[in-house]
């Protein structure tokens, strides 16, 4: 499998040259007009037309890159690992749209792998044969939980769980040890964040069992025990089985764990892993790395543009920015 990616990885090296560096973002902060920002985006392969809306530019860039990569990838499931998060986002929006009877179409993301109308039909209970079983199961689980609890919070939590479980299934099917290791670590770290958030919301043991994934290296039983017992030492021990990152350990040792700081520390760990993946000549990790950093770049661009439009402090916004590509 690794050798089949050699041609794609040459293309990825060219794609990486489009990504913005720290110096590019510094220059972006100095620009004084939207037209100057659009020109900067055009210099980095964003499809820009005169007066184009920034969100439209970002959507077109993601669609463009995903379409090109799907055409070239030896195994589309590698791209699905990232693209499916847009589908699960759309499922959340469609489900909330159904129960609220409101039009939430402005929240749809257009670059998922599956058509929004097909996902809407699935939410309504129609048979959509070609959609994958994990998507269908996630909708069934959310329907069941919402009927029982009438708690809107379960919608996001259970679709997040469905996405994690879907990722693990894809990683198993792809049968690449590096991908499986990355996915399992990601599930463990997401379980850590979700579990701590539920602990702070004083969620029950049963609620935690239902909403944490059993597809990581650490079982949901282990997570639930330490979280329900507020066992700080046990939590640190479990987390060290996933990562020995000093910053994550430091955040977890605080009396009141700051979830935002924890998520930032986790992103830094993930970024270092994705940065090292760029160096691989063979295998599917370079394309995953590219999509990871492209997503971060667009998130950061949104922050910068919002800040400039609303006269927000640069230093405050930079604290919220995600790790970016380093050449």
Count the beta strands: 0
Unreliable runs: none
Residue share in β-strands: under 5%
Task: Provide the helix percentage.
Answer: over 70%
Shape: globular
Task: Please summarize the sheet with the most strands.
Answer: none
Query: What is the overall number of helices?
Result: 16
Distance between the termini: 26 Å
Q: Strand pairing plus helix content: what structural class?
A: mainly alpha
Mean pLDDT: 91
Q: Element order, helices and strands?
A: HHHHHHHHHHHHHHHH
Radius of gyration: 20 Å
Q: Would you mind describing this structure in some detail?
A:
Helices cover 70% and strands 0% of the residues. It contains 16 helices and no strands. The longest helix is centred in the N-terminal third of the chain and has 25 residues, at 76-100.
Topology overview:
Blueprint: H1 6-16, H2 22-30, H3 34-43, H4 54-72, H5 76-100, H6 116-124, H7 133-149, H8 153-174, H9 177-200, H10 205-211, H11 220-228, H12 232-240, H13 246-252, H14 259-277, H15 285-309, H16 314-320
Looking at this protein, list some descriptive labels.
327 residues; mainly alpha; 0% strand; globular
Give a quick summary of the entry.
The protein has 327 residues and is an all-alpha fold.
């Amino acid at each position: 499998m690794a050798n089949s990616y050699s041609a794609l990885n040459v293309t990825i090296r060219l794609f990486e040259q489009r990504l913005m560096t720290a110096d590019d973002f510094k220059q972006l902060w100095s620009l004084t007009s939207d037209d100057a920002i659009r020109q900067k985006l055009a210099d980095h392969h964003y499809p820009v037309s005169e007066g184009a809306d920034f969100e439209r530019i970002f959507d077109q860039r993601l669609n463009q890159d995903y379409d090109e990569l799907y055409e070239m990838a030896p195994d589309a499931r590698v791209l699905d690992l990232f693209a499916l998060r847009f589908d699960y986002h759309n499922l959340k929006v469609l489900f909330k749209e159904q129960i609220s009877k409101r039009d939430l179409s402005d929240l749809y993301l257009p670059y998922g792998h599956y058509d929004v109308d097909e996902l809407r039909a699935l939410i309504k209970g129609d048979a959509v044969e070609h959609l994958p079983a994990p998507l269908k199961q996630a909708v069934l689980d959310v329907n069941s939980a919402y009927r029982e609890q009438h708690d809107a919070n379960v919608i996001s939590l259970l679709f997040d769980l469905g996405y994690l479980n879907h990722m693990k299934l894809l990683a198993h099917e792809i049968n690449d040890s590096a991908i499986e290791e990355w996915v399992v670590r990601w599930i463990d770290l997401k379980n850590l964040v979700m579990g701590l958030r539920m602990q702070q919301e004083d969620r029950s043991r049963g609620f935690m069992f239902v909403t944490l994934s059993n597809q990581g290296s650490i079982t949901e039983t282990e997570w639930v025990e330490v979280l329900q017992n507020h066992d700080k030492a046990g939590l640190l021990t479990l987390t060290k089985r996933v990562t020995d990152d000093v910053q994550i350990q430091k955040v977890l040792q605080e009396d009141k764990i700051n979830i935002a700081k924890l998520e930032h520390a986790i992103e830094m760990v993930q970024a270092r892993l994705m940065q090292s993946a760029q160096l691989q000549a063979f295998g599917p990790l370079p394309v995953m790395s590219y999509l990871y950093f492209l997503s971060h770049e667009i998130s950061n661009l949104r922050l910068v543009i919002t800040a400039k439009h609303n006269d927000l402090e640069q230093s405050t916004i930079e604290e919220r920015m995600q790790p970016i590509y380093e050449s």
